[in-house]
Amino acid sequence: MAMAFRPDRESFPTVFSGSLAYALLAASGLFFLCVWLLIAPVPTYALDTPTGNTTDADSEASDANLAAMTDTLMVSARALTDAVSPSAAGMVTVVDLGRQAEGRDLAEILGSSAGFQVRRYGGLGYVAVPSLRGSSAAQIRIFVDGLPLNDAQSGSVDLSQLPSARFERAEIHRGLVPAGMGGAGGAGAVNLVTRDFSEGFSSEAFTGGMGARGGRLSWGVSNAEGDRSLLLMLHGRRADNEYEYLDNHQTYHVAEDDSLRIRKNAWFEEWGVWGRGFLPLGPATLKLTAGWFRKDGGRPGPTAALSPHATVASDRLDAGLRLELPWDLSLESAAARREQILYDPEREIDDGFGGDIRSVGQDMVMRLAWTPTWQRDADGGWLPTSLGLTTGVENRLQDYRLWYGSAQDPRRNRRTTSLFTGAPLSWAAGRLQVTPAWRYQFLRDDFPPLPALPWLPEEVGVRHDRHDVSPSLGVLFAVVPEKVVLEAHVGQSVRVPTWIELFGHRAGIDGNRDLQPEEINSADVAVFWAINHHMSARLTAFFLETAETIIFIQNSPGTSKARNIGASRNRGVELEGRANLPLDLVLTGNFTWQDPEDRGIQAHAFGHRLPYLSATELDVRLALRRGVWRPWLEIAARGEFYRDRISSELIRAPARAMLNLGCSRRLNDNLTLSAEVINLTDDRTYDIVRFPLPGRTWQMALRWHPQEGARP
Predict the structure, then answer these.
(1) Most exposed: 172, 222, 509, 540, by fewest CB within 10 Å?
(2) Is there a contact between 269 and 241 (Cβ–Cβ < 8 Å)?
(3) pLDDT for 48-96, tens place per residue?
(4) Which helix (H) or strand (E) holds 57?
(5) Among 230, 131, 125, 254, which residue's Cα sits nearest to residue 190?
(6) What CA–CA distance (Å, rounded) separates 700 from 103?
(7) What is the 3 state secondary structure string of 137-155?
(8) Which residues of the chain are modeled with pLDDT < 70?
(9) pLDDT value at position 299?
């Protein structure tokens, strides 16, 4: 790989909010204080632990019993075959990231879940945009340990910017977002749970096609009692991403001028360090996390406007804490600073400006929650036998600055305050569970809109305030306890317009301060059936409608503007299941049928299928769980879809089926070698027009985990 120029960070002014800097430094300082306390001698006069506290084993048992009836996050890890867990709080699927093949990114892993779609703009490490049940990316809320990541600038999260090495599992919430996560809800959520404590050293390394290679090294230590622990991790990954693709030169109906080309300047390198620690503070428990992540890469551009010399560099520094207090109180706080520089020395990117662009975003969130549970005698008539409560307040501050060369745009900031309450009720020893929830959000923006083109004058700033309420209701009924369970959920939420939509962007986007928020209505009903100890399935019917849908519409040559265009709707059926077959074979998979439709006010698009959504999606995995050899086969099939709002046949994406074939070999109790062929069928269908995807490739990984032993 030919190394491209790196952005010259010294040429830009330094910006770092004092309050956020102090918060990050304080959190990091507390983290390293945890390390010192961990290795320091323990005094003989240690505080007594009140009887109200529980051990880790007690907590896991309690969470297992209450997972279906509480509106809090599941905290006990689940095997992949137990991913489906009925809950009155919402439709939840848990993905065990620790069991995935090394080197896979989050987009590839999550994209195989029911109702979860991913639009990719390139190969490994390149932009990947998520969708849940046909939602827009901005309607999906992404969390890390329950704290939000979506920013106010674009509203969406690029999955390629999240290092999968840090996470133990992903909790996918379709339809309803648990009230305990705060905010105004959305069409769904993904909560990424960071890795759990692991004693001693462990390491993983992988290599593969297109120059892919990387690894992870972690070290964990705890005291004799196990109530103080520290986990440190180093991780890195890179790829050249030079792959062959078919260039049709935008003449989709003429095959004679098609030619094979090599994708250039799609390389990336990323590395980071992350740590977490647990520390008892008398009757309370403190969890601290801190991390740094750096990613550099080429910016190849679309095939019609290549940028072979442009590069992008990004940094993220984050820290967080969670304080578990007596009386079922918890205090959470997180702060992050993100910096990104687009370096365009040859002015190859046609954005109306040309040159280097730098952005700095800062984010701070704090949440106080109270989660008590009351139990009573089951022989008490119609009153519930169990009542839970998840209530609290969340405050979030976001700050964003942008430079075009040395010229600085007005500083953008948003303050969001939300109140949330969920009340899980249970009757008949948990057979009937009802969870009503309600959340309120206040939002304030206060800065001037930006002109669509650099030479246009700025406008006067106007304060923008919003008040939104989002109610929801979930019901669960165990027809046959632990065998047949019915669940249903209904909710309303909003997606507030982003800064780009409201106030514009100098790269040709006019702001629209009259935009209304998207109103999201969702409902689903499901039946879970544990046929026997070897087989279970969940069948779900869902409905998702967005009123006041926001899209960008061209309003003049070279500029566009966000507008409310009416409604969009999706409805469908999801089937998830697993089966333990003879010969120690395990079959897991899901199937989705959906009918996404544009119901907006524009006649030319009304009634057409929403773009980028297939009518059918199928993901199946067959694996052998016996002996030292563990082969597996994965199938991902997608029906055809359109790439624009008017269902143009010329750019319609054909149906596709991708196969992955792999095998792992346990060399001893601590060491495992795996290899797989990815995209065995060499399918090269584009997701996005002019952004080609790679074909067949391979990967090999070596995993050393002494503390796991003979993991099944």
Answers:
(1) 222
(2) no
(3) 333 333 333 333 333 333 233 333 333 222 333 346 677 877 888 999 8
(4) helix 56-66
(5) 131
(6) 9
(7) HHHEEEEECCEECCCCCCC
(8) 1-84, 101, 350-354, 378-381, 448-461, 707-712
(9) 94
